[in-house]
Amino acid sequence: ESFGSVGLSIDRDKVMEISRKPLPETYRELHGDPLKIPKFNDVLWDTNNSMKSAELTEPYDETMMVLNFLNNKYLPCAVVTSNRVGHIYDCLKLHDIPIDIFQAYVGIKEITKVKPDPQSLFIALKKLDYKDDLSDVAYIGDSKSDVLAAKNAGVTPILIDRNNEYEDDDEIDF
After folding, report:
1. 141 within 8 A of 147, measured Cβ to Cβ
2. Are the beta carbons of 165 and 20 closer than 8 angstroms?
């Protein structure tokens, strides 16, 4: 829907492939009309933060097992997202995941710099009142920008790469 609104024809597989890249890079790669990027941003924002988008979000089978394990070990967890925090709440509620399983949330409206800049991770650590050694912190993500943000913050990156998307990417080798 977002792509079509600015005259770009793209299939779902390509959307999934490019969704891991920063929006301006994606738009340039698709040769989008630079004058239409504000409209594209607005439509994409509305689409990604809609209830329909939340309903399409499915947690992986092991998600609750991992979250419960971390909580049982009293390890604080935070969500750092390029979406609105309210959208994450909607996703959690739809899948009966308690909101308090995470002790902090950082959304797009709280940051001025996007990943791979580490700003969002530092905000999460501040919300968690974490003051210990950053090398004891792990950041779990599913994109190159997540890994680079973790490295830039000085924390341990853990990449969930279910489709081996990044296996040959030297920039995220760790």
Report:
1. yes
2. yes
> If pLDDT is split at 50, 70 and 90, which confidence band does 49 have?
low
State if pTM tops 0.85: no
Query: Beta 104-106 vs 156-159: how paired, if at all?
Result: unpaired
Query: Quick check: bond before 116 cis, omega within 30?
Result: yes
Candidates 129, 126, 125; CA nearest to 138 is: 125
| pLDDT tens column, 74-124 | 999 999 998 889 989 999 999 999 999 999 999 989 999 989 999 999 999
Structure-token match 């990417």, residue found: 169
**Residue 155, C-beta contacts closer than 8 angstroms, at least 6 positions apart:** 121, 134, 135, 137, 138, 139
> What is the tens place of the pLDDT at every residue in 27-40?
777 777 777 777 77
| Closest alpha carbon to 151 in 116, 125, 124 | 116
Q: Where are the alpha helices (DSSP H) in the chain?
A: 12-18, 23-29, 37-48, 51-56, 63-72, 85-94, 119-127, 144-153
Q: CB within 8 A of 79, min separation 6: which ones?
A: 85, 88, 102, 104, 105, 106, 124
* Residue whose token pair is 């490295």: 151
